[in-house]
Amino acid sequence: MKTWFNWYRPAFLRLRGYTFADLGPDAGAGIIVGVVALPLCIGLAIACGATPQQGLCAGIIGGFLVSLFGGSRYQVGGPAGAFVGLCSAGMAQFGPEGLALASLIAGFLILGLAFARLGNAISFIPVPVVIGFTTGIAVIIASTQIGPALGLPPPSRPPEHFHQTLRHIITHLQDAHWIPLLVCAATIVMVIVGRRWSAKFPAALAALVVVTAASVVFKLDIATVGSSFTAFDGGLPAPHLPGTGIVRDALQGDDASIIRLKGIVNLAIAIAILGSIESLLSAVVADGLGNDRHDSNSELLGQGLANIATALFAGLPCTGVIARTSTNIRAGARSPVAGVIHALVLLASLLFLAPLVSLIPLAALAGILFTVCWYMAELRHWPHILHGGRSDAFLLPLAFGLTVFVDLTWAISIGSLLAMLFFVKRISEATQLAEIPRDEHSVEPPKGCLVYEIRGPFFFGSATLLRDLEGGEADAKVLILRLAQVPFIDATAAFSLRELFSSYAQRGGQVLTCDLLPKVREDLERFGFAKLMPEGALHDDLGSSLRRAQTLILK
Predict the structure, then answer these.
(1) Would you say the pTM of this structure is higher than 0.70?
(2) Do β-strands 432-435 and 77-78 pair in parallel, antiparallel, or remain unpaired?
């Protein structure tokens, strides 16, 4: 079947031989994931300082489009815990309209990544950085739920930073109540027991039903979804283009609107980067669990479309979610149809169960999110990474600290940059310059000829190796460099090599290279080295170079 683009291969169009017999397992998995996602969509929205509808909208519209247009057979989309820090800051700074505009821009940015076919490039972010900011996000989410778990009054506006959340908790600690704490603890216990009993059992939803029923029967004086969000009426908002007023005022030259729009664009970039990373990580996990192989660029295209559509309904940003995707596979899903059914289950819940959802205690949602944070934190990987090497042991806590105390975007940017610098340092240290022993020469080197070998990648990080050879020995007329173990050479290394050629040429000498791999020979020809050496010298082996050196020295 032909697709829209040669590279676009959505999982939905790659289905072959789908029959009615496959619909049963997909429907069962979709229903299970839908009931699992219901409390998470609501809880994550509240943790962001948003309304329950915004979270459910992301699960319904985003989840539907991720499954329909994405590149993973099992991916389930919706609001993710990874977005809580960004979204809460966005809600505090720019309000629902600003956050929706950021999500809309992020959707187009993700589409740009897909059209540029950069899906594989997102996976270059190192694991210590990913786990560091994942653990940091878990800490941020957990900090936002301490207040509801203790029954503390909500802040007048959502805190933008971790320390502000802690300050609010400490300031109002004398207002804590034992009833919300008991409800939260009971929810956590039921979720843990339910998960251990069966991976397919919707433990979070079951705990929510039991706790909500108990709070109604015993008429507990406790904050609920309905009492905290009076506008929760169970309907989807009418679609509209978000942030038109902000953009219009900025185009008219209003300084405050221009500054506001710049902040929204920065937020959109962070959402796009984080959403792409989270989605592709989830798709990789799904490949391992479901014995499949996703298409990363198609997955990004589906994520971009999902975020654009969700923003039109003022929903939260959405991405592929590892926990719900894993549940989908374990529940027996066979195709993206399960993800579509999951979205329809959420839609039915929003339309027909809104009166019951409004009775859910916020402390119960806090308990569910605490369990999500525990499984999300990836703490089991910390000991292995901390003992794995100095650079990894440095990157992990750095990414965690930057995520919690500074900003998630800084954590990803600085962590990835430092990881690249560490990598360059390691590779440069692995590249060596050594004199070839005489017993390895196929031809006896003449007097005045030096023979050296470079072992490893020859690039900007190792280009300084040649400085020791520029002076050379006083009577050295010819220097032979064997590059048999050099897989590639970049412009910086080529410039350093050219300086070595110039140094020998000034005293009437010559530098020769030998045993070049085809790629390295092409690079040197491209950099103009064929003009600096005798004709055909780029194709010499060590023996030919030694004989050529004898001829040059005799001249």
Answers:
(1) yes
(2) unpaired
pLDDT, tens digit, 9 for 90 and up, residues 407-435: 777 787 788 888 888 888 888 888 999 88
Angstrom distance (rounded) from CA 152 to CA 174: 9
Long-range contacts of 228-234 (CB under 8 A, 24+ apart): 228/46, 228/154, 228/362, 229/46, 229/51, 229/52, 229/358, 231/51, 231/53, 232/51, 232/52, 232/53, 232/354, 232/357, 232/358, 233/354, 234/350, 234/351, 234/352, 234/353, 234/354, 234/355, 234/357
Instruction: Provide the pLDDT for residue 497.
Output: 92
CATH number of 432-554: 3.30.750.24
DSSP-based three-state secondary structure for 432: strand
Closest CA to 339 of 67, 80, 10, 73: 67
| Closest among 330, 286, 289 to 32, alpha carbons compared | 330
- The residue ranges of every structural domain in the chain are 21-120+131-374, 432-554
- Three-state secondary-structure class, residue 434: strand
Structural contact between residues 37 and 59, judged by C-beta atoms closer than 8 angstroms:
yes
**pLDDT tens per residue, range 73-96:** 999 999 987 788 888 888 888 989
What one-character DSSP code corresponds to residue 529?
G
Q: Number of H helices and number of E strands within the chain?
A: 23, 6
**Residue whose C-alpha is closest to residue 441's, from 541, 363, 361:** 541
**What confidence tens digit (pLDDT) does each residue in 377-400 have?**
888 889 988 887 788 899 999 989
